[in-house]
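Hey forum,

I'm writing up a methods section and want to include a predicted complex as supplementary material. The small molecule is adenosine-5'-triphosphate. I've pasted the protein sequence and the SMILES. Can someone with a working setup run it? I'll credit the forum in the acknowledgements.
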Amino acid sequence: MAKRFGVSDLRQQLPSLLDKVQAQGEEIIVTRNGKDIAKVSPVARPGTRGPQVIALTSLKGGVGKTTLAMHLARVIADERENVVVIDADNEMSALRWRAQASDLSPEGLPFGVVAAERDQIMKQVQALKHQGHTVIIDTPPNDREMLRSAATIADLALVPVLPTALDVDRGAVSLRLLEDMAFAVPNLRFAALLNRAASRQRQTREADEVLNQTVRIHTVIPQLNAYQEAFGLTPRRLSHVQDLWEEIQKRFGSDL
Ligand SMILES: Nc1ncnc2c1ncn2[C@@H]1O[C@H](COP(=O)(O)OP(=O)(O)OP(=O)(O)O)[C@@H](O)[C@H]1O
Ligand SMILES: [Mg+2]
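Reply by user p_vandermeer:
Happy to help. Structure tokens for the complex are below, copy them as they are.
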């Protein structure tokens, strides 16, 4: 049921109401003198069209880029055909993950993993997109060039951040870089994502508060053995990643 707001509410709270429409994927009805006069709808509705290219990026190593890329691919693969992870890291963690999973089970993973064509990654992504693939790009740490390429071609760049002061600080550097790029790439969308959170830990609460000052994903990925032990296996359909995908679709859906 759509919420109703009088025209005067709209005058006072327009930015926060529009955020609500987009972030929560809910329509609102505008009323005047008790009569409905207009409807405000989100650009993309939940469950319809989410983004087609998502990059996991950070200059900082070990923040969970590969782990989240693989788990996100798993969740999306349950809904869409043709999901592929592009491994843009020379360490080839995602490719090795796939190789191990194929050794363990004949079906392998429910999505593809391919090596990035490093000097032509934008062309590679565009081609996969045109073939109808959903693409998740796993990027290497400390590689500004790849971060820029991946974020340019992606509909959304996610920056996983671990809940320590040092990581929040390094995450901020990656976010600043993306913010700067947005001047030249107007449709660039990016968001920080708190990973390995332990809700009862002071450091996690502090990191959470700092991230509230930035563009962030509200879903938080907890510290769990299920993630730590997932390498080389078919990623499990974990609820936090499902929540993450739902939030991404609601807030960053595209009509491309
Ligand atoms: N939510 C989580 N809970 C527990 N362990 C996690 C979680 N996310 C990641 N890890 C663990 O953290 C370590 C680093 O994760 P991962 O390799 O995905 O990070 P990365 O950002 O891809 O690293 P690199 O920058 O080296 O490519 C791994 O041992 C992984 O299992
Ligand atoms: Mg990695």
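Some notes you might quote in the supplement: The longest strand covers residues 35-40. The pocket of magnesium ion (ligand 2) is lined by residues 65-66, 89, 93, 138 (CB under 6 Å).
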